[in-house]
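Researcher: Structure for this, please.
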Amino acid sequence: MSRRRIPVIFLVVLLLLSLSLAIANSQGVEEPGQYPPLVLPKASHVLFVLPHPDDETLPSGGLVSDLAKQGVKATFLYLTNGESFQWAAQEELQKSLLSPQDYLEFGILRQQEPRAALAELGYPKAEILFLGYPDKSLEKIWLEHWSAQNPLVSPELRTSISPYENSFHPHQAFAGENILEDLKEVLRQQKPDLIFAPTALDSHADHWATYGFLSLALEEMRLREGIAPPPTFLYLVHRGDWPNKHGKEPDKQLPPPKAMRRIGTWMVYPLSLEAQAAKERAIACYQTQRHLGESYIYSFIRANELFLRLDTPPLDGEVRVLEPTEDTFWRKVLGGADFSALTFAWDQGLRTQIEMRTGWPTWGSTDLHLALVYQDHTDFLDATRSDLSALPSGSSLVREGPLLRLTIPLAERPQAILASFASYAPFWVDRTAIWLLRTP
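Model: Predicted structure, token format:
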């Protein structure tokens, strides 16, 4: 019998993965600098907006435990049930081939884990809401399936409507407008005075899109219903090889990823030994996630938790925001597709300067997605660097070395703008955060 050859492409992939991890690890493990402490405003009702089960525990379980001790009411809202983790589902169900019913069964199993985890954190009768949208599909819904007339079909569940009977709205179509209306309905019903949500700087596409849906819901309610957005603090779960050292290290501080330390305002929430112990017990409730590796999920047990505030400056002059750079192998190698900063200005339309770490490759491309929020409606604009036909007449995109200058004339000024970009070379390389801007 001849020995089977290992495909060359497989070896190449392994090499690239190794290089990517080496680059991530080379970012250093230094302790955090002088980050200010997280000082929470007085709140009686906190809403946690969560892409998946476990997102309440990994980044903020110690904080949740302290809120429970203080008698603060908390509601936990999950956009998905996390059913699309194929390897974990195969292991839990002891099946190599999974049917839509198997994925549904796994999603129902995952719904039980936050109930147990929250009980360990001090909320044995937590108010939990499941929206029931498909795991690993929120970005695609945000970008491509806004209308309920064009819902997304989940690759795993093989349906375009929620099959979970305990969803906030059972049998809801997988469409962006439905997610948006569900969020607004929850916000009206719950009336939270403090929100915790994922940052759009998170590298997981579901976390990225969850921030977009929540931000749009809050802006539409601000403009059309006169409801001021409550203070919102952002948490991070996924960014390259962060946390840098895997495994439980309760005596060590958890710093932000090095590539993100210059972005926004990071705040430190110190954890007592009691809060750490409660968080460790809560993490242990997520048995389906042990397939991520216990060293990873327990690496969130540190001396502190981290939260981020991103300002929303008025667009009455130039607004420049920074982006993480060089935090994956391909961003390191393809600097012309690695976003480093964005500058926005309003001048009878939106002017944007897109800065890349090095010069733009001639073969690269860029996608643009804008949500323009007006007093009575929201418009969406999508375009690529090579095709501006979807933008208003007179729009232009000019390349100057590492810069792209984008001009979009708009007859009517929106009250708020949510802007994001993605780069391809020709495969996907980088994605900016969803940046919220308000026009004066």
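Researcher: Any notable elements?
Model: The chain has two domains: 45-309, 319-438. Confidence is low (pLDDT under 50) at residues 1-30.
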